[in-house]
Amino acid sequence: MCRNTALSPNSLLAIWWAACLLVFAGPSLAADSDAEKGLAIAVESDHRDTGFSDSTVNLTMLLNLSETEEISREMRQMILEVDDDGDKSIMVFDRPRDLKGTAILTFTHKVGNDDQWLYLPALKRVKRISSADKSGPFMGSEFAYEDLASQEVEKYSYKYMGDDTHDDELCFMVERIPVDKKSGYTRQVTWIDQSEYRLRRVDYYDRKGDLLKTMNLTGYQLYLEHYWRPDEMLMTNHQTGKSTILRFNNYQFLVGLTGNDFSRGALSRIR
Description:
Elements: H1 9-21, E1 24-25, E2 28-29, H2 34-47, E3 54-64, E4 70-80, E5 88-95, E6 103-107, E7 115-120, E8 125-129, E9 156-166, E10 169-178, E11 187-193, E12 199-205, E13 211-218, E14 221-223, E15 227-229, E16 232-237, E17 243-253, H3 264-269
Antiparallel strand pairs: 1-2, 3-4, 3-17, 4-5, 5-6, 6-7, 7-8, 9-10, 10-11, 11-12, 12-13, 13-16, 14-15, 16-17
Helix pairs in contact: 1-2
């Protein structure tokens, strides 16, 4: 199936701007300031993941509540790229039985608050998640609702912090500050590998400025000869000692999803 993956004028302008900032000298970048360099890295990382159109994936969520207690959940996720805005996504629970059919719909926006709705089959109703609640835990996991939204460039300000090695990969360290004052994080420190501009690690700092969580992304594989996707995300809460693992399998691209598949009404029809 052929898809039109032409970039919008705004996207082309962002890429042209980033190209003006990017001057490669081996693995390093040259720019007028650490803020410009951090932004340039973020724009390049985003550009390399643009154009996949739509995708689906199966997930296993493992909640490690203690050394002896672990909860397993099975889910599906669908994602749709949107021109000139953030991605749309739906995540649906298949197991355990008491969660089957529970679904979350997310409309990510480049500017302004994201929109999220939660469908609860037991109540047969769709509940809107307020922006004040998006920092809360997603279904008892260590992932917050805001972590499920696509990480659009415009949602942060940036600062290049230097180079570092993570899992034997040379990475850029880039600090990003959420623009949204209602975010549950005051800052995030990211590790982006210099070979393919893939996100490898994120340190999340809470509203007091203390280290809250770390997410590690591993097992990247290449799809359609262009798009890198991780096999696993591990979110560790340093303040509680709990962690959550997301394992991904059976990525599918260009499956023919449309905007009609990502409506509030579609939440209650998903099986």
